[in-house]
Amino acid sequence: MGEELITAGVTVASAAVVYTLAAARVIKQYERGVVFRLGKLLPAARGPGFTMIVPFVDRLRKVNMQIVTMPVPAQDGITRDNVSVRVDAVIYFKVIDASEAVVRVEDYRFAVSQMAQTSLRSIIGKSDLDDLLSNREQLNQGLELMLDSPAVGWGVSIDRVEIKDVSLPETMKRSMARQAEADRDRRARVINADAELQASQKLSEAAQQMAATPSALQLRLLQTITAVAAEKNSTLVLPFPVELLRFLERAGQPAPAPGAEQEPAAVRDSAPTSPAPAPAPSAAPEVVAPGAPDAEAVAPATRAEAIEAAKAAGLASPGAAGVAGAAAEPNAPAAPPASDAEEPDGRQDPMVSGFEGARTRQD
Protein backbone atom coordinates (compact mmCIF):
# COMPACT_ATOMS: atom_id res chain seq x y z
CA MET A 1 0.00 0.00 0.00
CA GLY A 2 2.79 2.36 0.82
CA GLU A 3 4.54 1.61 -2.43
CA GLU A 4 1.42 2.46 -4.39
CA LEU A 5 1.17 5.80 -2.62
CA ILE A 6 4.80 6.56 -3.36
CA THR A 7 4.37 5.66 -6.99
CA ALA A 8 1.26 7.83 -7.27
CA GLY A 9 3.06 10.75 -5.63
CA VAL A 10 5.95 10.44 -8.00
CA THR A 11 3.60 10.34 -10.95
CA VAL A 12 1.72 13.42 -9.80
CA ALA A 13 4.96 15.24 -9.19
CA SER A 14 6.23 14.30 -12.59
CA ALA A 15 2.99 15.47 -14.18
CA ALA A 16 3.21 18.74 -12.28
CA VAL A 17 6.76 19.24 -13.43
CA VAL A 18 5.80 18.53 -17.01
CA TYR A 19 2.80 20.86 -16.77
CA THR A 20 4.92 23.57 -15.25
CA LEU A 21 7.52 23.25 -17.93
CA ALA A 22 4.83 23.36 -20.60
CA ALA A 23 3.04 26.36 -19.05
CA ALA A 24 6.04 28.41 -17.99
CA ARG A 25 7.09 31.32 -20.21
CA VAL A 26 9.74 34.00 -19.81
CA ILE A 27 9.18 37.43 -21.37
CA LYS A 28 12.13 39.77 -21.78
CA GLN A 29 12.18 43.39 -20.67
CA TYR A 30 11.77 44.82 -24.18
CA GLU A 31 8.95 42.44 -25.10
CA ARG A 32 5.26 42.12 -24.39
CA GLY A 33 3.23 38.90 -24.48
CA VAL A 34 -0.12 38.62 -26.23
CA VAL A 35 -2.11 35.55 -25.13
CA PHE A 36 -4.75 33.86 -27.28
CA ARG A 37 -6.93 31.43 -25.31
CA LEU A 38 -8.72 29.10 -27.61
CA GLY A 39 -8.17 31.68 -30.34
CA LYS A 40 -9.54 34.59 -28.35
CA LEU A 41 -7.35 37.52 -27.43
CA LEU A 42 -7.03 38.12 -23.72
CA PRO A 43 -7.45 41.79 -22.91
CA ALA A 44 -4.26 42.22 -20.90
CA ALA A 45 -0.85 41.70 -22.41
CA ARG A 46 1.72 39.91 -20.30
CA GLY A 47 4.55 42.00 -18.99
CA PRO A 48 8.25 41.14 -18.76
CA GLY A 49 9.31 38.32 -16.43
CA PHE A 50 8.02 34.82 -15.64
CA THR A 51 4.46 33.99 -16.60
CA MET A 52 2.26 30.93 -16.93
CA ILE A 53 -0.20 29.89 -19.60
CA VAL A 54 -2.49 26.94 -19.95
CA PRO A 55 -0.73 24.34 -22.05
CA PHE A 56 -2.51 23.27 -25.21
CA VAL A 57 -5.14 25.95 -24.53
CA ASP A 58 -3.30 29.27 -24.55
CA ARG A 59 -0.92 30.49 -27.23
CA LEU A 60 1.56 33.24 -26.32
CA ARG A 61 2.98 35.59 -28.95
CA LYS A 62 5.82 37.90 -28.06
CA VAL A 63 6.04 41.38 -29.60
CA ASN A 64 9.27 43.40 -29.66
CA MET A 65 8.77 46.93 -28.34
CA GLN A 66 12.17 48.27 -29.38
CA ILE A 67 12.69 50.95 -32.01
CA VAL A 68 13.17 49.29 -35.37
CA THR A 69 15.49 50.75 -38.01
CA MET A 70 14.27 49.85 -41.47
CA PRO A 71 15.94 51.01 -44.72
CA VAL A 72 13.59 52.02 -47.48
CA PRO A 73 14.71 50.75 -50.90
CA ALA A 74 15.74 53.39 -53.45
CA GLN A 75 12.80 54.71 -55.43
CA ASP A 76 12.97 56.15 -58.94
CA GLY A 77 10.74 59.12 -59.63
CA ILE A 78 10.30 62.37 -61.51
CA THR A 79 10.15 65.60 -59.58
CA ARG A 80 7.66 68.36 -60.17
CA ASP A 81 10.17 70.19 -62.40
CA ASN A 82 10.62 67.05 -64.57
CA VAL A 83 13.98 65.79 -63.28
CA SER A 84 14.61 62.07 -62.93
CA VAL A 85 15.97 61.20 -59.47
CA ARG A 86 16.60 58.14 -57.36
CA VAL A 87 15.93 58.58 -53.64
CA ASP A 88 16.40 56.22 -50.73
CA ALA A 89 15.51 56.75 -47.08
CA VAL A 90 15.48 55.15 -43.64
CA ILE A 91 12.58 54.90 -41.21
CA TYR A 92 12.58 54.51 -37.41
CA PHE A 93 9.43 53.13 -35.74
CA LYS A 94 8.32 51.14 -32.69
CA VAL A 95 5.26 49.24 -31.45
CA ILE A 96 3.27 51.06 -28.80
CA ASP A 97 0.36 48.60 -28.55
CA ALA A 98 1.30 44.93 -28.81
CA SER A 99 -2.28 43.69 -29.12
CA GLU A 100 -3.12 46.10 -31.98
CA ALA A 101 0.12 45.27 -33.79
CA VAL A 102 -0.74 41.57 -33.70
CA VAL A 103 -4.47 41.79 -34.38
CA ARG A 104 -4.79 44.76 -36.77
CA VAL A 105 -2.17 43.82 -39.34
CA GLU A 106 -0.71 40.51 -40.42
CA ASP A 107 2.90 41.68 -40.54
CA TYR A 108 3.41 45.20 -39.31
CA ARG A 109 7.03 45.31 -40.48
CA PHE A 110 6.15 44.54 -44.08
CA ALA A 111 3.20 46.93 -43.94
CA VAL A 112 5.35 49.78 -42.70
CA SER A 113 7.98 49.07 -45.38
CA GLN A 114 5.49 49.16 -48.25
CA MET A 115 3.81 52.27 -46.94
CA ALA A 116 7.18 54.02 -46.66
CA GLN A 117 8.01 53.23 -50.30
CA THR A 118 4.73 54.56 -51.65
CA SER A 119 4.94 57.69 -49.48
CA LEU A 120 8.49 58.34 -50.65
CA ARG A 121 7.47 58.17 -54.32
CA SER A 122 4.60 60.53 -53.58
CA ILE A 123 6.93 63.02 -51.92
CA ILE A 124 9.28 62.90 -54.91
CA GLY A 125 6.50 63.75 -57.34
CA LYS A 126 5.26 66.67 -55.24
CA SER A 127 8.66 68.30 -54.66
CA ASP A 128 11.14 70.21 -56.77
CA LEU A 129 14.74 69.20 -57.20
CA ASP A 130 15.94 72.16 -55.14
CA ASP A 131 13.68 71.05 -52.26
CA LEU A 132 15.09 67.53 -52.38
CA LEU A 133 18.62 68.86 -52.21
CA SER A 134 18.36 71.76 -49.80
CA ASN A 135 15.04 71.51 -47.93
CA ARG A 136 15.17 67.95 -46.63
CA GLU A 137 13.96 68.77 -43.12
CA GLN A 138 10.58 69.84 -44.38
CA LEU A 139 10.35 66.79 -46.64
CA ASN A 140 11.24 64.50 -43.75
CA GLN A 141 8.46 65.99 -41.65
CA GLY A 142 5.94 65.60 -44.47
CA LEU A 143 6.98 61.98 -45.03
CA GLU A 144 6.70 61.26 -41.32
CA LEU A 145 3.15 62.60 -41.23
CA MET A 146 2.20 60.52 -44.26
CA LEU A 147 3.47 57.35 -42.56
CA ASP A 148 2.24 58.08 -39.05
CA SER A 149 -1.43 58.50 -39.96
CA PRO A 150 -2.18 54.85 -40.91
CA ALA A 151 0.47 53.38 -38.61
CA VAL A 152 -1.28 54.60 -35.46
CA GLY A 153 -4.19 52.25 -36.12
CA TRP A 154 -1.72 49.36 -36.29
CA GLY A 155 -0.29 50.08 -32.86
CA VAL A 156 2.90 51.40 -34.46
CA SER A 157 4.45 54.82 -33.90
CA ILE A 158 6.75 56.38 -36.49
CA ASP A 159 9.65 57.89 -34.63
CA ARG A 160 11.37 59.67 -37.57
CA VAL A 161 12.05 59.41 -41.29
CA GLU A 162 15.26 60.54 -43.01
CA ILE A 163 16.05 60.85 -46.70
CA LYS A 164 19.52 59.40 -47.09
CA ASP A 165 20.63 60.08 -50.64
CA VAL A 166 19.37 61.70 -53.83
CA SER A 167 21.02 60.28 -56.95
CA LEU A 168 21.01 62.46 -60.07
CA PRO A 169 21.91 61.66 -63.68
CA GLU A 170 25.43 62.52 -64.80
CA THR A 171 24.20 65.19 -67.20
CA MET A 172 22.28 66.88 -64.41
CA LYS A 173 25.34 66.77 -62.18
CA ARG A 174 27.45 68.48 -64.83
CA SER A 175 24.77 71.11 -65.38
CA MET A 176 24.55 71.84 -61.68
CA ALA A 177 28.33 72.03 -61.45
CA ARG A 178 28.42 74.61 -64.25
CA GLN A 179 25.64 76.58 -62.59
CA ALA A 180 27.43 76.57 -59.25
CA GLU A 181 30.68 77.63 -60.93
CA ALA A 182 28.93 80.49 -62.72
CA ASP A 183 27.32 81.62 -59.49
CA ARG A 184 30.66 81.59 -57.67
CA ASP A 185 32.22 83.52 -60.55
CA ARG A 186 29.44 86.10 -60.36
CA ARG A 187 29.93 86.55 -56.62
CA ALA A 188 33.68 86.87 -57.09
CA ARG A 189 33.23 89.57 -59.72
CA VAL A 190 30.77 91.48 -57.56
CA ILE A 191 33.15 91.35 -54.62
CA ASN A 192 36.04 92.43 -56.84
CA ALA A 193 34.02 95.33 -58.25
CA ASP A 194 33.02 96.42 -54.76
CA ALA A 195 36.64 96.31 -53.68
CA GLU A 196 37.64 98.39 -56.70
CA LEU A 197 34.95 100.95 -55.86
CA GLN A 198 36.11 101.26 -52.27
CA ALA A 199 39.73 101.44 -53.35
CA SER A 200 38.96 104.17 -55.90
CA GLN A 201 37.18 106.20 -53.24
CA LYS A 202 40.12 105.91 -50.88
CA LEU A 203 42.58 106.75 -53.67
CA SER A 204 40.51 109.81 -54.57
CA GLU A 205 40.63 111.02 -50.98
CA ALA A 206 44.37 110.35 -50.85
CA ALA A 207 44.90 112.24 -54.11
CA GLN A 208 43.04 115.24 -52.75
CA GLN A 209 45.17 115.22 -49.62
CA MET A 210 48.39 114.93 -51.64
CA ALA A 211 47.27 117.71 -53.99
CA ALA A 212 46.95 120.01 -50.98
CA THR A 213 50.47 119.09 -49.80
CA PRO A 214 52.80 118.21 -52.73
CA SER A 215 55.53 117.05 -50.35
CA ALA A 216 53.30 114.13 -49.32
CA LEU A 217 53.61 112.67 -52.83
CA GLN A 218 57.39 112.81 -52.60
CA LEU A 219 57.31 111.13 -49.18
CA ARG A 220 55.03 108.43 -50.55
CA LEU A 221 57.49 107.84 -53.41
CA LEU A 222 60.33 107.46 -50.93
CA GLN A 223 58.29 105.00 -48.87
CA THR A 224 57.60 102.92 -51.99
CA ILE A 225 61.31 102.87 -52.88
CA THR A 226 62.17 101.82 -49.33
CA ALA A 227 59.59 99.01 -49.39
CA VAL A 228 60.89 97.70 -52.71
CA ALA A 229 64.53 97.92 -51.69
CA ALA A 230 63.88 96.04 -48.41
CA GLU A 231 63.23 92.78 -50.28
CA LYS A 232 66.83 92.49 -51.56
CA ASN A 233 65.95 93.02 -55.18
CA SER A 234 68.67 93.56 -57.74
CA THR A 235 66.42 95.77 -59.87
CA LEU A 236 64.79 98.92 -58.55
CA VAL A 237 61.85 100.33 -60.50
CA LEU A 238 61.71 104.09 -60.10
CA PRO A 239 58.61 105.87 -61.41
CA PHE A 240 59.40 108.88 -63.58
CA PRO A 241 56.78 111.60 -64.07
CA VAL A 242 55.62 112.05 -67.65
CA GLU A 243 55.36 115.82 -67.20
CA LEU A 244 59.11 116.03 -66.71
CA LEU A 245 59.73 114.14 -69.94
CA ARG A 246 57.48 116.55 -71.82
CA PHE A 247 59.33 119.53 -70.28
CA LEU A 248 62.68 118.14 -71.41
CA GLU A 249 61.30 117.50 -74.89
CA ARG A 250 60.11 121.09 -75.21
CA ALA A 251 63.43 122.37 -73.88
CA GLY A 252 65.39 120.41 -76.52
CA GLN A 253 63.54 121.97 -79.46
CA PRO A 254 65.27 125.03 -81.16
CA ALA A 255 63.77 128.41 -80.35
CA PRO A 256 61.96 130.13 -83.27
CA ALA A 257 63.46 133.23 -84.91
CA PRO A 258 62.28 136.54 -83.42
CA GLY A 259 59.42 138.02 -85.34
CA ALA A 260 58.68 134.81 -87.20
CA GLU A 261 55.13 133.68 -86.90
CA GLN A 262 54.97 130.06 -85.78
CA GLU A 263 52.44 127.83 -87.33
CA PRO A 264 50.18 126.09 -84.81
CA ALA A 265 51.23 122.53 -84.04
CA ALA A 266 47.83 121.15 -85.01
CA VAL A 267 47.96 122.85 -88.42
CA ARG A 268 51.59 121.84 -88.94
CA ASP A 269 50.88 118.20 -88.13
CA SER A 270 47.74 118.07 -90.24
CA ALA A 271 49.28 119.72 -93.36
CA PRO A 272 50.12 117.12 -96.02
CA THR A 273 53.77 116.75 -96.86
CA SER A 274 54.63 117.69 -100.50
CA PRO A 275 57.94 117.24 -102.32
CA ALA A 276 60.26 120.24 -102.45
CA PRO A 277 59.83 122.36 -105.62
CA ALA A 278 62.53 122.07 -108.27
CA PRO A 279 64.97 125.00 -108.34
CA ALA A 280 64.20 127.62 -111.00
CA PRO A 281 66.69 127.88 -113.85
CA SER A 282 69.16 130.64 -113.36
CA ALA A 283 68.85 133.58 -115.71
CA ALA A 284 71.75 134.73 -117.85
CA PRO A 285 73.94 137.34 -116.17
CA GLU A 286 73.19 140.87 -117.08
CA VAL A 287 76.10 142.72 -118.64
CA VAL A 288 76.29 146.40 -118.17
CA ALA A 289 78.85 148.34 -120.17
CA PRO A 290 81.06 150.89 -118.43
CA GLY A 291 79.46 154.23 -118.23
CA ALA A 292 76.02 152.89 -119.11
CA PRO A 293 73.09 154.16 -117.09
CA ASP A 294 71.44 151.93 -114.50
CA ALA A 295 68.82 149.61 -116.02
CA GLU A 296 66.45 150.14 -113.09
CA ALA A 297 66.78 153.91 -113.39
CA VAL A 298 66.48 154.15 -117.12
CA ALA A 299 64.36 151.45 -118.77
CA PRO A 300 64.01 152.02 -122.51
CA ALA A 301 60.53 151.28 -123.66
CA THR A 302 61.57 149.88 -127.01
CA ARG A 303 64.36 147.94 -128.63
CA ALA A 304 65.41 150.98 -130.66
CA GLU A 305 65.99 153.08 -127.57
CA ALA A 306 68.06 150.24 -126.07
CA ILE A 307 70.24 150.14 -129.20
CA GLU A 308 70.74 153.91 -129.12
CA ALA A 309 71.74 153.70 -125.49
CA ALA A 310 74.27 150.99 -126.32
CA LYS A 311 75.75 153.07 -129.14
CA ALA A 312 76.11 156.04 -126.85
CA ALA A 313 78.00 153.81 -124.39
CA GLY A 314 80.48 152.78 -127.12
CA LEU A 315 79.00 149.40 -128.07
CA ALA A 316 78.59 149.79 -131.83
CA SER A 317 78.42 146.12 -132.70
CA PRO A 318 75.04 144.63 -133.41
CA GLY A 319 75.63 141.83 -130.84
CA ALA A 320 76.16 144.33 -128.06
CA ALA A 321 73.02 146.15 -129.00
CA GLY A 322 71.17 142.87 -128.93
CA VAL A 323 72.50 142.11 -125.50
CA ALA A 324 71.55 145.53 -124.25
CA GLY A 325 68.11 145.14 -125.73
CA ALA A 326 67.70 141.77 -124.06
CA ALA A 327 68.73 143.26 -120.74
CA ALA A 328 66.30 146.10 -121.18
CA GLU A 329 63.39 143.77 -121.81
CA PRO A 330 62.64 141.85 -118.58
CA ASN A 331 60.39 139.33 -120.28
CA ALA A 332 62.84 138.49 -123.08
CA PRO A 333 64.13 134.91 -123.20
CA ALA A 334 67.59 134.18 -121.77
CA ALA A 335 70.59 133.88 -124.11
CA PRO A 336 71.45 130.30 -125.11
CA PRO A 337 74.55 128.70 -123.58
CA ALA A 338 77.93 128.85 -125.27
CA SER A 339 77.72 125.29 -126.46
CA ASP A 340 74.57 126.14 -128.39
CA ALA A 341 75.88 129.47 -129.76
CA GLU A 342 76.94 128.07 -133.07
CA GLU A 343 74.31 127.49 -135.66
CA PRO A 344 74.06 124.22 -137.57
CA ASP A 345 75.92 125.66 -140.61
CA GLY A 346 79.01 126.54 -138.50
CA ARG A 347 78.41 130.29 -138.31
CA GLN A 348 78.44 132.10 -134.99
CA ASP A 349 75.45 133.96 -133.70
CA PRO A 350 76.01 137.71 -134.06
CA MET A 351 74.41 138.39 -130.63
CA VAL A 352 76.89 136.06 -128.94
CA SER A 353 79.85 137.58 -130.82
CA GLY A 354 78.70 141.04 -129.83
CA PHE A 355 78.40 139.94 -126.17
CA GLU A 356 81.96 138.59 -126.24
CA GLY A 357 83.23 141.83 -127.80
CA ALA A 358 81.54 143.88 -125.12
CA ARG A 359 83.09 141.69 -122.40
CA THR A 360 86.52 142.13 -124.06
CA ARG A 361 86.22 145.90 -124.13
CA GLN A 362 85.10 145.95 -120.53
CA ASP A 363 88.19 143.98 -119.55
Automatic annotation (TrEMBL):
Keyword Membrane carried by entry: yes
Entry's transmembrane regions: 6-27
Low complexity bias locations: 253-273, 283-300, 313-332
One GO term describing the cellular component: side of membrane
Chain ranges of the Band domain: 22-180
Region spans: Disordered: 253-300, 313-363
Similarity annotation: Belongs to the band 7/mec-2 family.
Protein name: Band 7 domain-containing protein
